[in-house]
Automatic annotation (TrEMBL):
Its cofactor is a divalent metal cation. One of its GO terms (molecular function) is metal ion binding. It comes from Mytilus coruscus (Sea mussel). Pfam families: DDE_Tnp_4. This is DDE Tnp4 domain-containing protein.
Amino acid sequence: MVKHYNCIVCSKRTKPKERRSINPAVKRLLQNKWFITNISQNYIICNGCMHKYYNAEKSRPLKVTRTAQDDCDQDFIPPKVARTSKQLPSPPSVCLNIPGASNSHARCVVCKKPGPKFLVVSSDARFQAFIDGNVLIPAGARCCSSHFQENGFLKTECFDIMSKSENSSSNRTSIVKLLTHMRETCQKTQNKIDFDNIGETDCKTLTGLSHQQFEDLCLHVLLHIKSTPSCTPKTSVGLFLIKMKCALSNKLMSTLFKTLLMRSFVPLYLGFESITREQIIKDHTRPLAKTLLDADDDNMILVLDGTYIYIQKSNNFSFQRKSFSLHKSRPLVKPMVVVSTTGHFVAIIGPFLSRNNDASILNHMMKCNVDDIKSFVNDKDIFVVDRGFRDSITLLEKLGIKAAMPTFLKKGEKQMSDADANTSRMVTKIRWVVESANARIKNFKYLDRVLPTNQVPFIGDYIRIVCAISNKYLPPLSKATNEDEDINLATQMKQKSREINTLKAYVEENNLQEGQCSGSQYRTATFPFHN
């Protein structure tokens, strides 16, 4: 009868040339690492197993004293599967006082519903579940797709369900991986603002928006921004807002996010196409303005003014001359701001070079039909402007648009008449809102500083972005608390503007004008008080 010689490790039948006797070193290796006991001198090992395990033992850089507990926790390869190179993790042996989920592949770890359409919970999602919900989810666990957020993490309500489970068990390898992941996360977030988990106070201080408003703004662009290991979509949004709000210096301003905001967010909240005439008349027109200007219910009131954005001196001599303002004695560009009587930004036109005054910009807007403005305004609409638009009055009248502007001193006069002064006051009562709107733009400190010339092509987009943010998230600049009170105030102003100035009449009757009376007459004169 032929005797068969099988390998003690892989149980493979060996040929005479493949047989190797077990020397003391191999015997010690088999006993200590692979738990093969009762090895006699008649046992043999094949060439493959001997070289595989003997060379692996020799390549170990450091010899560590092993204990019984180490043998229990150490990952090992049973003799039955020693022919494969994949190591199996040790079974869970450490009981933790932390709720844990099952690692079943047939049921969802959250709702326990049977499969088969499940998604594997990623390592990042499992780590986030431990951080946010104090729940341990084992590797390889499955979950329904409805429990995931858009960013791949589990929803918050899932943690409440899994937290009711019993305590979890884990092995040493999983615990070490968890601690390593936590350490790496702490190193990444050290001295760094995490916009994905930013607090209410920090969000308001850095961006000027509340946490809810910041999240809403991010929803407009999250689908268009790719996440990178160093910058998430919310981080891109936060950095841009910090740049606009705090004007921190940097060498390069990325225009990628600005382009996405201009395409996804600004058209919804700024521009003639973002709002209708009816909405402006109904929701963004103060009764005070309608009463003072005698506007009908179908007349739209807009307030226009230009603002200044200062820029550095250009090396291009032609552009330097065109951008230099003789009025301010420095280079600048001028955007035209169009707002409603409540301070709602309707449109931003431009910016234009400083050699263009307000009147020439408005004439250009109407003649060239910039942004299709002619289809937005109708006859008998009212434009509230300042004296810098005086050269546009004729054009506006030809188009059927009424212009409300403070009056000028007539030739030869040193003081305005009562009627002209009162008219100017009523126009100023309405027009102040555009000055406050310009100040709201400058609250974003980046636009209140001197910008480099390489940012000139993007100034218009920056202003439109901050104006759209103001329309969406900030309260109106001017809004009546009570419509009846607003109308009563306007009625009193109009009534008092038509009253006779008794003080002026008394001065004229007694010849108390400057240069027409002596000092004694002026001191002894009794002036009536005008109530």
